[in-house]
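User: Can you write out an input/output pair for a complex, sequences first and structure second?

Assistant: Here is one pair. Inputs:
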Amino acid sequence: MKTKFNLDRDKLNSDYIKSKQDYKKVLNGFEALKPPIWKNPWFYGPVGLTSLAAILVTTLQSQINVYENNSTLIISSASKQSFSGETPCIKTPISGQDLDFQTFKVLPEKGLYTEAAYETTIHIPANSLNSKPAGDTMKVKIRKFQD
Amino acid sequence: MSVNLLYHQTSAKLEEEQGWIRRAQKDPEEFGPLYEKYHEQIFRYVHQRMDDQELAFDVTSQVFMKALKNIKKYEYRGVPLSSWLYRIAKSELYQTFRNRKATRTVNMDTLNLADMVEEMDDEQNELNRKKLFEMLKKLNENDLQLIEMRYFEKRAFREIGEILELTENNAKVKCFRALEKLKKYFIS
């Protein structure tokens, strides 16, 4: 920091300094110094919680929409059935146009959540399938037809 | 040595000031009387340390804006509000020196120098005053600040301590050491 030394500089008189008083300017500056509304602690009370809830609802809603748009296949526990061997599959709706299966391995106690072909999300909740013997990996074969 | 009388206030004056402060803590508009009371003191403190008069008025306004912003946190410690304002002014000043590249200025009178030469037990003549003026340039910022407050602004050790956040005794010791340093430069 540079320092300058002055000797016997002219003194300003009190009247001049008084004439420069401007409390309005100080008040305006003070208003400008106030933090914006979202920086106030009270904002994080009711307003903040409401905003957070709104964000969560919107996010969840958009996830539900994604499931719907992408034809999510959800196997719920209500659809638990016992099958042995190869299960009967959907017949191709248009004769002569066949599709290959996509095969996924699933550990029943862990379930499965994955993307399949044609923008399909596969969600098999944990413990919604019964394997025999218990703890074995299961194979899920999937193919999707759209007309 | 004469002492800055503005610092010493009667208990009635201090009480009146406390009333203004309490009102200002509830409503910033009520800060007006405090602004009027201390504007000149704070301006002189700032202007003493810089040459640019308009900038000094600007910095003074900034000091009062910051004071208004923080008035709710202010706690009375038995001393005038000025000590608290000087602390804000000190920090605003150094911020201005850094951000706006303003030049730190030390302003002194021949009379101040004469007082100091006398305090150093030396013959009070023009040659010595000139020599002292040159020697002051050798002091570091902290020592210069102490000498400035004590000898050019005639502040009490208690007030210096409050502004620099030191005890009265510590301010006294530090002032003494700064003067001793100056004496050494002066003699050599």
